[in-house]
């Protein structure tokens, strides 16, 4: 199931919100830590220098732990947040206030120490933590001289391990936890509020989308579906909904007008063809009678009479086709489905054209020859379909050509293919061959010998028997018309 627009936008909004909140918390925490470190280092910047100047033992170059033990003890009591180290000019730790075994480094990097001594404007500056290989800490440092000789550096870590553990416990105290909970609840409430507001804003869009889907299912017939009531001049989505309503009303009115005009056209064609049939039949009868009773008429009069009879027959055929097409399009045609033998019907239709095909030098074939297949369809309409297709093939096939009806089993259906080796249909004409009054530009023989409605009638008949016709053609190589019929029982 596809996610809705609201779901996608909500997920995107929530992801961006969580990411932004996480980055903000990380940034504020980092800024807080840097600010705290900067303030503490600036506050205790001169600590090491004062200690070095106020202790004669350090000035004398005494750095033995036992000698300095009382000094370190006193300093630790007064400032438990500090750790004291004495470092020689190469960075080696000579003595320290920590107990033996707690210091893991033997050397520290002197670059941060020298940087702080030379420039105290860019704080905080972090130095190595002798108790940990991975940590850095702020510090205070002072060089220790004996005369002009550099004895080493007094390296004071600001924020001892005791200080870190106490500060960590404070951070995890109940007050911090309560504040964190309130912060999370506040952020959650803000997120939920934003989602509710967003859902309220997008609700009209979802309503419009659902309405358009329902309209599409009814094929834009709004008589079966009431239009939505949109507030006037509320927002852009409501304005869009009102515009959609107006558009649907216009489309529906135009469709009703087109339907009415189409019905009027069909009725007119049916009435005209019906009204023309009676006088035309009377005219044709009198012309045939005149032709029989005037055997002694001169040759010129006989020729004129034959031409008149021929044109009268063509006009009758045209009116019959118009009447048939109008009747098929009226939607009042009955479908009589039954089980019958497909092979027998095909051979009966072939027999109607056998003499005409023989005179034209065209072979008629059926494959397979033994086609004892039972189908479930309307036999009368299928006969008319095959008649039109074979007659169309005869009209477009040269002397010496072949017209073949192939029957192929295809998934409990029989595929009927009427193929010829005629002149074929151009790619420009192919999309229009089932339209009324179509007649290919490469039609053989007299262009007035047919009405041009045969394929339109065939297409409509195939639709009535719940099938679909497909055509393949190539100029100079022939044409194939194919459609399927339901088998009377599973094959």
Automatic annotation (TrEMBL):
CDD domains: HATPase (cd00075), HisKA (cd00082)
This protein's name: histidine kinase
InterPro entries: HAMP_dom, HATPase_C_sf, HATPase_dom, His_kinase_dom, HisK_dim/P_dom, HisK_dim/P_sf, HssS/ArlS-like, Sig_transdc_His_kin-like_C
Organism per entry: Pseudoalteromonas spongiae
Recorded superkingdom: Bacteria
Domain Histidine kinase residues, every copy: 271-489
Gene3D superfamilies named in the record: 1.10.287.130, 6.10.340.10, Histidine kinase-like ATPase, C-terminal domain (3.30.565.10)
GO molecular function: kinase activity
Keywords from the named record: ATP-binding, Cell membrane, Kinase, Membrane, Nucleotide-binding, Phosphoprotein, Transferase, Transmembrane, Transmembrane helix, Two-component regulatory system
Coiled coil spans: none
Record's subcellular location: Cell membrane
Substrates-to-products reaction catalysed: ATP + protein L-histidine = ADP + protein N-phospho-L-histidine
Membrane topology recorded in Swiss-Prot or TrEMBL: Multi-pass membrane protein
Keyword ATP-binding: yes
Enzyme Commission (EC) number: 2.7.13.3
Domain HAMP span(s) in chain numbering: 199-256
Pfam families in the record: HATPase_c, HisKA
Transmembrane segments: 176-198
